[in-house]
Design goal:
This protein has nine helices and seven strands. Strands 2-5-7 form a three-stranded antiparallel β-sheet, with no helix packed on it. Strands 1-6 form a two-stranded parallel sheet. The chain has a two-stranded antiparallel ribbon with strand order 3-4. The chain is elongated. It starts with a helix and ends in an 8-residue tail after the last strand.
Length: about 375
């Protein structure tokens, strides 16, 4: 359940960030839609009067079409993400980890922290230990020994009677010793089944560790690259497009279609939309990294890992875990368990119950 609560908290956090990003995109694009519609109408009129060619008309239609689709997508996505966020908040528990700033400089050290905080790995390890203990318990032919004690009354010369009209002649106490005994073949098959389950959980734990390493590396690189891309877009690309829009407005002809201005505005708004999505990717990657390390999703995190060094560290982890061999081991152990169960069912092997019923001294 701890893993389920953590997964739900991450999902809710991502929904919140998605709603914010699409809302910002919608607010940025909505003002350009009316001007694009006006420009398209003027371009249609100018084309009919032979003032412009087909190229400017197609450009005006492309700008209007892009604004219509983009605004509709942004508004619907923002509303849907906000609805999911409101729904998920009722199933969210606060994170137990520390929210202090953290710096990641080595992938191996961070992965060790990820492994320690993974509830799934802990649960699989407990299941592996339980399967091993069950295998030991099944490695005996005598499964259970028990004693049933019968206490009676109204013992007569012809036996034990339970009618009140017969006088009491003794109170017998009769112990009945019993055993649950299973055939040797059943014992061997149950041991094989337990060993297969133990091996299954061992290989599953290895496979989960490899998957966690890959997931952590992917979000680490995504967080770095998205943050760097956002800085470049904000400091270089968007100012260039703003300057291009100002230049188009300066060369605009009064009374004619503003195709060049609307096109420049569209390119600027496209860059702003990409910027918002890039920021969203960085925030979601940050939430995932904190989630994997058992921290609150919004906790500050600084990454100073060289991508090539991180890739080399990931290769070392995968070489040690060998997820392909682990996946093959998972399938092989499942087949071994299934074969053992199938043999038990086909041969109808069952536990037999033996009882020893001595005659009590009173009855004798």
């Amino acid at each position: 359940m701890s893993q389920a609560w953590a997964d739900q908290r991450l999902l809710a956090s991502k929904d919140v960030e998605t709603a914010k990003a699409w809302k910002a995109t919608s607010d940025a694009l909505r003002p350009g839609l009316p001007q694009a519609a006006v420009d398209l109408g003027m371009a249609i009129k100018a084309y009919r009067n032979g003032l412009i060619g087909a190229g400017p008309l197609r450009e005006a239609f492309a700008s209007w079409h892009w604004y219509m689709n983009s605004v509709l997508e942004a508004e619907s996505s923002a509303s849907l993400a906000a609805a999911w966020s409101a729904l998920d908040q009722g199933f969210v528990r606060p994170a137990e980890g520390s929210g202090e700033p953290l710096r990641i400089s080595k992938l191996e050290d961070s992965f060790a922290e990820v492994s320690r905080n993974s509830h799934s790995l802990k649960e699989v390890a407990l299941r592996q230990a339980a399967a091993a203990e069950m295998t030991k318990a099944n490695d005996h032919r005598i499964q259970k020994a028990f004693v049933d004690v019968y206490v009676g009354s109204n013992l007569t010369a012809s036996g034990i009677g339970w009618l009140p009209s017969i006088g009491v002649t003794g109170v017998p106490v009769m112990p009945v010793l019993g055993f649950e005994l299973k055939p040797e073949e059943l014992r061997e098959l149950q041991v094989a089944q337990g060993q297969g389950q133990t091996e299954y959980y061992r290989q599953l734990k290895t496979k989960l560790e490899a998957d966690l390493a890959v997931r952590f590396y992917q979000n680490l690189i995504l967080f770095q690259s998205a943050r760097q891309m956002a800085v470049v877009m904000e400091s270089e690309l968007i100012p260039q497009l703003e300057a291009a829009l100002a230049d188009a407005k300066a060369r605009e002809l009064p009374g004619g279609p503003d195709t060049a201005v609307v096109s420049a505005a569209r390119r600027l708004d496209e860059a702003k939309a990409r910027f918002n999505q890039t920021v969203l990717a960085a925030r979601q990657a940050l939430a995932t990294l904190n989630y994997l390390m058992g921290r609150p999703e919004g906790a500050p995190l600084e990454v100073s890992v060289d991508p090539q060094e991180a890739l080399a560290a990931l290769n070392r982890i995968l070489a040690e875990k060998n997820p392909v061999a682990a996946q093959k081991g998972i399938l092989a152990s499942r087949i071994a368990v299934a074969r053992a169960i199938e043999t038990v069912v086909d041969k109808d092997l069952k536990v037999e119950q033996l009882s020893l019923e001595p005659v009590s001294l009173v009855a004798r």
